């Protein structure tokens, strides 16, 4: 499924760009070392983390996007780093649990 289509269907707010990319799966975690060890290229990460390391991990494992939940918004320096490195950050007021369920309903499966 296409990232732009997912963003629209889930009502996600783009914080730092949005790529027209195919989503290959999803992973939910707030522990970034877990993300590095268990995600795959082209997946979306669902997390409450909003610090700069989210951008670094996204680039390291080549995530399609990071969906930040619970209405959290990163500081401007994190958004600037995401834009600089081409990392798509999306935000929602929904919980990680709700986003995971909605992704599953759309046919997106685990990384």
Name of the level-1 CATH class: Alpha Beta
Stretches where pLDDT is under 50 for at least 5 consecutive residues are: none
Question: What's the gyration radius in Å?
Answer: 12 Å
Q: In percent terms, what proportion of residues is strand?
A: 15-25%
Query: How many strands, which pairing sense, and closed or not: the largest β-sheet?
Result: 5 strands, mixed
| Strand/helix succession | HEEHEHEHEH
Overall tally of domains: 1
Shape: globular
Q: How many strand units?
A: 5
Major sheet strand order: 1-5-4-3-2
CATH superfamily: HprK N-terminal domain-like
The residue-averaged pLDDT reads: 96
Which architecture does the CATH hierarchy give at level 2?
Answer: 3-Layer(aba) Sandwich
Measured as a percent range, the helix fraction is 40-55%
Number of helices: 5
3D architecture notes:
Helix content is 41%, strand content 18%. The protein is built from 5 helices and 5 strands; from the N terminus they run αββαβαβαβα. Strands 1-5-4-3-2 form a 5-stranded mixed sheet, with helices on both faces. Strand 2 (25-28), helix 2 and strand 3 form a beta-alpha-beta unit. The longest helix has 10 residues, at 52-61. The chain starts with a helix and ends in a 6-residue tail after the last helix. The model has no long low-confidence stretch (mean pLDDT 96).
Concise synopsis of the structure shown:
The chain contains five helices and five strands.
